[in-house]
Amino acid sequence: MADRCGRGTDAVRATRAVVDLEAVRHNIRGIRQRVGDRRQLMAVVKADGYGHGALPVSRAALDSGAGCLAVAIPEEGQELRTAGIECPILVFGLIQPNEASKTIMAGLEQTVCSVELLDALDQESKSRGVTTSVHIKVDTGMGRIGLAPADVVEFARRAASCPNIVLKGVYSHFSCADERDKEFSRAQIRRFGEVLGALEAAGIAVPVRHMANSAGVLDLPEAHFDMVRPGIMIYGLYPSAEVSHSVELRPAMSFVTRICQVKVVPPGTPIGYGATFVTDRKSRVATIPVGYADGYRRLLSNKGQVVVRGKRVPLLGRVAMDMCMIDVSSIPEARAGDEVVLFGAGLPVEEVASIIGTINYEVVTGIGKRVPRVYV
User: Fold this and answer.
1) Inter-residue contact 125 to 118 (CB < 8 Å)
2) Does position 4 have pLDDT exceeding 90, yes or no?
3) In angstroms, rounded to a whole number, what is the distance separating the alpha carbons of residues 165 and 145?
4) Is 46 assigned a catalytic role?
5) Pair 230, 321: CB distance under 8 Å
6) For 216, which of 223, 265, 340, 349 could close a Cys bridge (C-beta 3.0–4.6 Å)?
7) What is the spatial distance between Cα 146 and Cα 112, in angstroms, rounded to a whole number?
8) How far apart are the C-alpha atoms of 20 and 375, rounded to whole Å?
9) Residue 359: is it exposed, middle or buried by C-beta count within 10 angstroms (0-12/13-18/19+)?
10) CA-to-CA distance for 74 and 295, rounded, in angstroms?
11) pLDDT per residue as tens digits for the range 158-191
12) Residue 330, SS3?
């Protein structure tokens, strides 16, 4: 027996990510209250706004208290410029010297920690008759990009001597701030403070000093400096289970789909690729049009749960590229067209992340491009 497929009336695809922009605004207002009015607030909207949509999130953030934005690569910043975003936008990632024009043509601010990139930005800016703002990155313990603390003063002098470069900021990044033990993070703050002291002693003015990511905003007020850079918390998610809830957040994204078919099958029926699940009783099996090509991870096979009509039901068999199956035997009224919550109300994204051994960041940024974002 099978219910007929599809009775939804939505104009968009049944599988969709629903993004609540009022939740984004609420979270920005909470962050602003936490850090005070005198500090700048840079909203991090890289990776397409952590999968939520960089442009709508940027507009909501700027409307509710953010003054500038951050992206990972110049191309992300260019997209925002093309859409009419005019505020300062910092590129976190390093670019090759021959890519300097990407930053300059889009009017972006660039992270720097090499003489080669600094000189390329200076020369390209000169050729275009503009100046380019840069932020020096200091490695205080992340071990990723950045200058060693001992090299910052000399590099800052070099930047200040470039006629087409504006030294706007100096910053660092936490590696362990989302852990309960803050000893290493406080050591990073001390190292960064020493760098700032050395710059001041050398007579080098730094307009904007910044270090605090989401975990820093929540738990390390001594790291708030002149500006904070919240990322994951803008989207209503805490960076880990070990941070405080000093800002009350509202998750902005729900990942949902709709049942497209319900079958009643006898005991002994194999379900899905590889027949990794076989029914042990008469069952009502529903097919949903979502798979790993949408970002619904294959690691959830035979382990995940979803919510149908307010009740959790298990995933059956392997998640395929475009479809998977769920057991709705406990919901006799379930039928084609019913909404299915993959994460959201009744099923936190953190729980989904835990099942597959990852973090909430990866789950929300992994929702595929073919999944439409619907804004409410």
Assistant:
1) no
2) no
3) 20
4) yes
5) no
6) 223
7) 8
8) 6
9) middle
10) 25
11) 999 999 999 999 999 999 999 999 999 999 999 9
12) coil
- Measured in whole angstroms, the distance separating CA 59 from the mean position of its chain's CA atoms is 16
* 239 closest CA partner among 33, 44, 41: 44
Residue carrying structure tokens 């975990």 = 215
Q: Describe the strand order of the beta sheet including 305-308 as a list of residue ranges.
A: 261-265, 283-288, 324-327, 311-316, 305-308, 339-343, 253-258, 16-19, 373-375
β-partners of residue 324 are: 288
Are 360 and 4 in contact, with CB atoms under 8 Å apart?
Answer: no
First to last CA, the chain: 37
Question: Per-residue pLDDT tens for 55-80?
Answer: 999 999 999 999 999 999 999 999 99
Closest to 289 in 3D by CA, of 325, 317, 313, 323: 323
Q: How many residues does the chain have?
A: 376
Are the C-beta atoms of 328 and 308 separated by less than 8 Å? yes
Contact assessment for residue 304 and residue 295, using Cβ atoms and an 8 Å cutoff: no
What CA–CA distance (Å, rounded) separates 70 from 76? 9
Q: Which of 355, 373, 354 is nearest to 365 (CA)?
A: 373
Strands (E), the chain: 16-19, 40-44, 68-71, 89-91, 109-112, 132-137, 165-171, 208-212, 227-228, 253-258, 261-265, 270-271, 277-278, 283-288, 305-308, 311-316, 324-327, 339-343, 373-375
- 182, 273, 311, 369: the active-site residue: 273
State the catalytic residue, choosing from 46, 102, 137, 168. 46
The span from the CA of 36 to the CA of 228, in Å, is 11
Q: What tens digit of pLDDT does each residue of 305-354 get?
A: 999 999 999 999 999 999 999 999 999 999 999 999 999 999 999 999 99
> 3-class SS at 90?
strand
Task: Please give the domain boundaries of the chain with CATH numbers for all domains.
Answer: 21-234 (3.20.20.10), 253-375 (2.40.37.10)
